[in-house]
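The protein record passed on below.

***
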Amino acid sequence: MKNCSRYLFSVMFVLTCSANLSAQEISIGFRDSLKSEILNETRYIFIRLPENYNNSEKLYPVLYRLDGDKHLFVETVGTVERLVYHEEVISEMIVVLIENTNRGRGMWPVRSQTGPDNFQKFFDNELKPTINKKFRTNSTDILCGQSMSSAFVLYSFLTSPDSFDAWIACSAGFPGGEEFYYNLAGKNLNSELFNGKTIVMTNGLSDSYDPEQKI
């Protein structure tokens, strides 16, 4: 019991001393905005530049991540940097997360293609040109989404294969939209525009939207 009390006292002492240390803010990126004429609204984005961006003249690929918020920003940056600096399996890249305004309007083409078509134009004519102008990019662009936003990722892949170089669709199952995507794939996939393009689709075995694992 005496040893236990001594241990607890030591922990409390360390915590107390740590509280007196000078705090230093750690920043992993910044939030910016873009007034979109196509969408008729202001869109907010989170941006993370590579660790050595300011000390180099390198050009970087860009990962565009949908459904952006500060929590997903931390998660995405952490994953990218682990793969870059610890596992060394991908190159350094600029990370751009796009916040939602009306998620269903821009992501789900099954009911109406107007919203997703405008969202694609926003990428092609406004967001990507802005990022390319402000930062040192190498014209390699990747689009990543999850769940409903992966519906847009696949729609972008099938309808605008010249817009990105790679697409990542996480939890890419679309209950109620299978026929729409089958028809779209059958109509478009024979184009030579898909040569050299990459798409990755993932589904978890324990997905609450697919309890019988049909997708």
Helices lie at 2-19, 70-86, 103-107, 114-134, 148-159, 178-188.
